[in-house]
Amino acid sequence: MTHASIVWLCRAFSGPGKRGSKKPSGTVRVFNYSKNNKPEKLSLGILSMGKIYHIPQIIITHDSFSFTDECSSDNELMESFHKYISKLSGFKKDSRFTNITPDGYSEDTILIGFYRKRWYVVCSDIEKLYSRIEVVIKSKDSIGGISHSTLQASLNDKIQESEVSDRVYAKIAFNVLCKLCGKDFVSNKTFDKFRQWVVTGEPQNDNWINEHVCQASELPISFPEESHWCLILRNLNQVCAIVCLYNRLMRKFIIGEIPKGYNIHQLDGYICDWKNHIEYKFDDYINRIIK
């Protein structure tokens, strides 16, 4: 839900990877490579913690093909090529793949990548895909030598914030509220409207503030570097939340009125110091920094 948002951009350059891992991971994307400001080629890869990682892929033009992978030596690259060709031999018309062809792409060049047991394809005419693969398989033994070049990479993805991104922040707020106050509390009907909006996007919710870049000087305390945090506040008879990712990207919510018969703390929450793999409850973190 955040693949085309500013959150994705922060994660791509800073981390973390999947489930907090610091190993390279991410969504396969199409990168443009140029030399002296002149387009050279396209390539498939992932952007993780500020670095581009190629995935095993074949690049097919009208009269040739080439192979690219993230390898540390020429021998490793050749070994990867033969393993890839073996997998490609099983690519048939009923094979499942993800088409990531950019809008308006009309080039004759075809890219076929393999990453985490899934095929990724860039092709302007899918009908040509299978016949071109057959040509590559038949020509696999005629591959030439290995060449090296230094090129400048660029990514033309559109980054935009939307109501979908807001609902991701809202889900974080609601999950934290549940962890702090319990299932019975958040199941109360007073939160039905907010809960429904998080799940379905309907009805439209005006109880959030648009994208706000959080400045360190605005915060009452100092949180860990690029940490994620969520604070639950009691404002008169309302439950409010502030969700901040990377100490920078913030949303504020009015979740609903405090149900009758319940009470909540004036201020509570959680801080995720993902760089050091530490989670703090808000009051524990306060006690830690004032000691």
Describe the structure in your own words.
With 291 residues, the chain is of the alpha+beta class. It folds into two domains: 6-154, no CATH class; 163-290, no CATH class. It has seven helices and 15 strands. It has helices at residues 6-14, 74-88, 126-138, 163-181, 183-186, 192-200, 282-290; strands spanning 29-35, 38-48, 51-54, 57-60, 65-68, 97-99, 110-115, 118-122, 152-154, 212-213, 228-235, 238-245, 249-257, 267-273, 278-281. The strands form three sheets. A six-stranded antiparallel β-sheet has the order 10-13-12-11-14-15. A five-stranded mixed β-sheet has the order 5-4-7-8-6, covered by helices on one side. The chain has a four-stranded antiparallel β-sheet with strand order 3-2-1-9, covered by helices on one side. A hairpin with a 2-residue loop joins strand 11 (228-235) and strand 12. Helix 4 (163-181) packs across helix 6 (192-200). It is elongated. The model has no long low-confidence stretch (mean pLDDT 81).
The general outline is elongated
Question: C-alpha Rg, in Å?
Answer: 24 Å
Tally of DSSP β-strands: 15
Task: Give start-end ranges of low-pLDDT stretches.
Answer: none
Instruction: Specify the biggest β-sheet.
Output: 6 strands, antiparallel
What is the tally of helical segments? Answer: 7
How big a fraction of the residues is strand?
25-35%
Strand/helix succession: HEEEEEHEEEHEHHHEEEEEEH
